[in-house]
Amino acid sequence: MMKELKIRDRFNVELPADNSTINQSRQVFDACFSFVTPKIPSKPLLIHASSETADLLGLTNEDVNSESFVNVFSGKELLDGSKPYAMCYGGHQFGHWAGQLGDGRAINLAEVEHNNKIWALQLKGAGRTPYSRTADGLAVLRSSIREHLCSEAMFHLGVPTTRSLSLILSGDQVMRDMMYDGNAAYEKGAIVCRVAPSFIRFGNFEIFASREDLKSLKALTDFTIRHFHPKIKSEGKQKYIDLFQTVAKKTMEMVVHWQRVGFVHGVMNTDNLSILGLTIDYGPYGWLEGYDHNWTPNTTDRQNRRYRYGFQSRVALWNLVRLANALYPLVEETDPFENVLDQVQTWFFQAYLKMMHDKLGLAKVSAENRGMVLALEAVLQKSETDMTIFFRRLADFSKDTDVKDGDKFLDVVRDAFYQPQEITGEILDEWRSWFVSYQQLLLSEERDDTARAEAMNVSNPKYVLRNYMAQLAIDAADNGDYSIVDELYALLKNPYSTQPEMEKWFVKRPEWARHKVGCSMLSCSS
Ligand code: AMP
Ligand code: MG
Prior knowledge:
With 526 residues, the protein is α+β, with helices and mostly antiparallel strands. The chain is built from 16 helices and 13 strands. β5 (90-93) and β6 form a beta hairpin. α5 packs across α15, α6 packs antiparallel against α7 and α15 packs antiparallel against α16 (483-491). The longest helix has 26 residues, at 236-261. Residues 271-272, 281 line the site of magnesium ion (MG). Adenosine monophosphate (AMP) binds next to loops.
């Protein structure tokens, strides 16, 4: 038996509930959520559990391996005293208002308390809810592996994120048209249990503002402040401005981290932005391999590339404007929101510059170095250059290197180039002039090479969940072999430490993965 979890429900106790319990796709008014029951899976099988996330809930290894664990976190059995529910929210998808969306395949089991912290537990892929629209409420194994591994990897990278407790096969088949090209096929169904202080999104506020339901909007906003931003002590309208400011800052902090590690979310719709500034909803995300501001893994977004790597901060700001519009009825003034947006934009530029200084091992942050950073970003994009390997190897650059002659100075980072033979002529000149200015900055600092390398290696991960790595884990898991899931999970617990027996994961993307579905191309189908 799994130990009993201490239920401390707030969302489904303090906020207005849908008074219908009919589990059919429909519009839900004047309510923050609907009570629902997870679908009973035919043959749940635990593939993997995160012991770190289990620990947050006070669950031991023995608990994780019990039959009740797999039953509860697959939706087969309800926790005693729990009242599961799906949240009502709306959202702007790809720049357009999409109306009511909601938890179409997420079911919140309960909020539980451990060590004075309260965690919301949410199953993804546990069946239909009133918000499922025309879809089935289910999730497939491939996208569940991606969500489970990436949530935990992001946490260990120091990026704010929702967590993942478990990855469970449902035993049911799910029909998906993976690339939306008319080739639908059955895939294995799976359920992930996500864990976070809350899963409230920007879209939860937008839906009420769009319906002019001020009562629910105020209830939800006050609830959010009370439980998740308790440092806000102001009253009246000011507290809503303060909430907006807090959320804006946290959101932009999260984006600075994404840029640092080369993470591209892929679907930054307002229904996928957390009010806590956590990375949420791991769908067609990807990791930069070749450093490229225009890259997005999401084929659904191939034309406009709205959610490309180099645009994530602008999209975050655009989403914050949507949140400001949603909160506006509680304030009825635009100036305070605009001031916050201006401030946070300025803050982002400074934070981004500081982050790039950290990646480069420069202790003295100066606005004058902006040109040097821009020059690096430009030359990195001239010839395909692996972001992770480049920054990791750069830590070994010595201040005394001769950068004036030949091209030996590039040896330290040569491994990062996908086409090393291309680095000649103008590109080589550009690299030389960048290294000259970098070297000058290093020489003007007191830090020696060793201290600088140590500092850089805590900003620049050695191991990230490259798209092809997740795909290898998925292909094996599809055949019943979960060893790569286990291996990647263990590897990504220590992304900044060299793990000598794991060198095979510190390599560029292999050529076979360049144009392969799942590695360079992902759709929203999951
Ligand atoms: P996403 O693009 O995954 O963030 O999903 C957008 C909306 O579609 C959310 O309201 C989801 O709950 C819903 N949705 C996505 N996939 C499914 C599915 N298989 N069944 C039901 N709803 C879904
Ligand atoms: Mg979503």
